[in-house]
Amino acid sequence: MGSLPIPDSQFAHLDQFPMDEAFMIMRDFALDTHPGKVSLGAGVYRDNDAKPWVLPSVRKAEQLVVQDPNIDHEYQPMSGHPPFVPLAQELTFGPLMASLSNRIVTCQTISGTGANHFAAVFLSQVLSAKRVWISNPTWGNHHLLWDISAPQVKQQLYSYYNAKTCSLDFDGMIQTLDTEAQPGDIILLHACAHNPTGIDPTPEQWKIIADVCERKRLFPFFDSAYQGFASGDLDQDAYAIRLFAERGFELAVAQSFSKNFGLYGQRVGALHIVVSRSEVAAPTQSHLTKLVRGEFSTAPVHGARIVTQILSDSSLRKQWYADLQVMSSRLKDMRRALYDELRRLGTPGSWEHIVDQIGMFSYTGLNAKQVARLRDEQHIYMMASGRASIAGLNTSNVAAVAAAIDAIVRAEQQA
Ligand SMILES: Cc1ncc(COP(=O)(O)O)c(C=O)c1O
């Protein structure tokens, strides 16, 4: 009597949300039964046998962690696993710790994605920012993340990539920021190994970016997902963050331990906020802690323990530095091998950008049609934007990948 009809489902109005492209490529690659298939899609490190690589330092540290009779599974403080937090700070800020340590506010997060999410929630609320400036292009998840975490903040794009020269559009970037950015806007900067282009500003260009941020009173927010993984040198990869911190900016850093420790599934990360006065640190920390409480209460501890074990033991730390060299050198070697092979084949076009770029990814310059043909005809998988994960290359497949690119580029030229 008078009761409402029961709908068949209260979720029936939902459309299928498109799957994330990187994960779609992983699924399609897994379904492909061709023996010569190559995955250049996912942003994960692979060894020369195309296998996941557990870093020797991580393997050893994990054994020590699980064998430690004093380890328990208690909740950690809301700011994170206590010994992990200063080590994470030290990795990011290095020698600046001496002057900054009482002005850095940190909470452990659910890896780099969680740190990005927290930064978006926290900065948008606390700074009442109206806009966030994001590079065009950027890691695809940045857009979704700011959409979900801070829908009231308008996402604005600054120019970053010149498709004609496959290089940084530095003038375009500076001009956009100079003419359109407003005081109080947030600017999202990739600390190193820009995803997806693999193109970073030079130290001189970083200084000019810092000048614009100062002039326009922008709040710098660094996404640091590849420290040590990019160049093999932790200090070099933290250059931009430290430059800004040294110049006295208040800033935020989203730090991921996924790539540089190969701890993808453990979800280890941290969000750091540098404040200009030490008195501001405690209240800032309390607001961050409140957010943690309201979202996940305390962060997972196992991965943080592994990182702590490595960073606080000098021989394990040394091993980790060597592991970083193994990964970054292999990526550099594969860039060179792909470039050399394309040159040897005389593949039309200029391919220098492949060796000039840095880190996990190369923005190859291949277009969406060429990428589709590589997948359908050659069983080689990469993002439609032409982003290739260099980690998917190895000494057994690089010649075949170059030959496939050569065939596709030539076929298009003849059509
Ligand atoms: C630019 C950038 N930021 C953040 C992340 C976050 O990674 P995770 O959540 O695995 O730490 C990634 C991962 O690919 C990335 O490329």
Automatic annotation (TrEMBL):
Catalytically driven reaction(s): L-aspartate + 2-oxoglutarate = oxaloacetate + L-glutamate
Keywords: Aminotransferase, Pyridoxal phosphate, Transferase
Listed Pfam families: Aminotran_1_2
Ranges of residues in domain Aminotransferase class I/classII large: 37-405
Leading EC class: transferase
PROSITE patterns, alphabetized: AA_TRANSFER_CLASS_1 (PS00105)
Cofactor annotation: pyridoxal 5'-phosphate
EC number: 2.6.1.1
Top-level taxon: Eukaryota
GO molecular function, one term: transaminase activity
Record InterPro entries: Aminotransferase_I/II_large, Asp_trans, NHTrfase_class1_PyrdxlP-BS, PyrdxlP-dep_Trfase, PyrdxlP-dep_Trfase_major, PyrdxlP-dep_Trfase_small
Family of this protein: Belongs to the class-I pyridoxal-phosphate-dependent aminotransferase family.
Note: In eukaryotes there are cytoplasmic, mitochondrial and chloroplastic isozymes.
Assembly mode: Homodimer.
UniProt-recorded name of the protein: Aspartate aminotransferase
